[in-house]
Amino acid sequence: MIDISIIILSTLRRSTPLIFASLGAVYSERSGVVNIGLEGIMLVGAFVSVIASNAFGLLPGILLAVVAGMAVAALHGMATITFKANQIVSGVAINLFGMGITAFIPEALMGMTDIRALNSAPLLAGLTPLVYVAIALIPVSHFLLFHTVLGLRLRSVGENPASADSLGINVSTMRYLGVVLSGALAALGGAYLALEQGGGFTKNMVAGRGFIALAAMIFGNWTPFGALGASLLFGFSDSIQTVIQTMGYTIPSQAIQALPYILTIIVLVVAVKRVRMPEADGKPYLR
Amino acid sequence: MKCGSIFLAVVLLLSVCAVVDAQKKYSIGLVFDVGGRGDKSFNDAAYRGLEWASQRLEVDVSYAEPGPGGADRENLLRRMARSGKDLVIGVGFLFTQPVVAAARDFPDVKFACVDMDVGSAGELPPNVVALTFREHEGSFIVGAIAGMKTQTNKVGFVGGMTGPLIEKFEAGYTAGVKYANPECTVLRVYAGDSPVAFADPARGYELAVQLNSQGCDIIYHAAGNTGNGVFRAAIERGFYVIGVDSNQNYLGYDSAAGKNWSLTSMLKRVDVAVYLVIEDLVNNRLEGGVREYGLKDFVKIGNETYRALDFAIDDYNRANLDEETVKKANEIIEKIVKGEIKVPKSMKEL
Question: Does A255 touch chain B (CB under 8 A)?
Fold first, then answer.
């Protein structure tokens, strides 16, 4: 029989990139900006974390990845907040940009598509450090969003930017804050994938996790704890799928691999009635 | 006299033409698989074969790489064919259908597909060469090595995308493990059922950690870049890895501890196949059909002799492979070459 602790640890590890990115999506969408560019930002984070940590060490590498993620997210902010562009179109562009630049730079400048990370994160009680960071950020974010003035302002521009504006809240500043925070968090998710799991950067290594994180944010009803729960559910079904495979059951492997997606659909059907997105989510604010 | 000199000039001119014609520079185009150059594995090996050819044979070489998802594979093949290449090579079984389709429209251009999925290709056009390997034979050897070296009597297999190609690795490996050590069990996991499963190192790490925590002390991966995560897990957790396709022994090196966690690598010499098919073209003996390279196929390039399939020994893993094991592995190779051991190529045949 499989030790339960193996499944718990595996679930936590697999959930971590989703927790980071879905929490990022919560910040962005609560401020009223849809950010489907998470996948691309995660790729940039993964890429920069490997390059920078090879040059300067583990912690500076992660910090620089966060800065890079914030910079790419700021581009999305500029397009959608300052220039009021369609948020979906800009998000798609960010994804294409992230995929393209992280494939192009290593190939054109270094002649390779695959960069090995030279520094390895240490294990703390069986898990790598960013797993703890991801989980710790959930209550912090909950407090910030729902129990501080800043959080109230950030949420208000996502619900009713006109009222917020009339009360003297700078809608653009608040929205930039939400988007840039989402970039920082998505980049952390990418750095985790590259430094603490994959051992390096590989083209397109995020493999759709940015989109799954968006789904997790929606299940989670645009809240940090909801995003955590949904991410854990995805991570859990993914690790169960592996366990069933290793037990050598003769269920067709395609059926096993479909498990996370079937769960996704079930949860979506159950959850869709009670979720409510921020009122002004996805809408550019025009005075 | 005047006529004579004109005659001479014409003869000279013709002979120059003849010489130029004899040294016609063949033009080769190669399209990589998703993952591209720098995967330290399959595509890199294909590139090495291309490099050998450009250095040793009178050929022009060029290459291209499909975009994310690889939907433009066929377009790239067609573009190569249209630009006047004599031979266009697609790297990877995902080129099976694109190569067949492009070959039908360019009957004067030769096409080759490394790792072609011959079963699903239907009838091959006469200008297509399918380059295939008996990967199950190479996997049998590394499986036998794993069976001899395991301490826990439990070894693992991490596959990339499910399907008949990677199943050959799994079946050969499992049979090899059981041949050397009937007591040993093999746990296997696949990363997924789409091409992304070959480019997801984070998932590779996760699968390897899972297998290791279930008691596997040696893990063989046939998962492309996904395997990078298997090596990372091995360095972190301390178990042995068997690399695939190219010599990946250096990937298991833990520089902090000075220990190497690579047991060996199953070498599938795509470089040899790519080089040979170009050499055949240059020597005018390239014929369409399936070419299958196995343990019995030796390839000579200059003074070096390469086997189409092999297991890697270098400074990185010498300490992990004792002479006794190497000797036994070579004996098993001889037995397979002589036909004394029949290696299964699917789990059904196992």
Answer: no
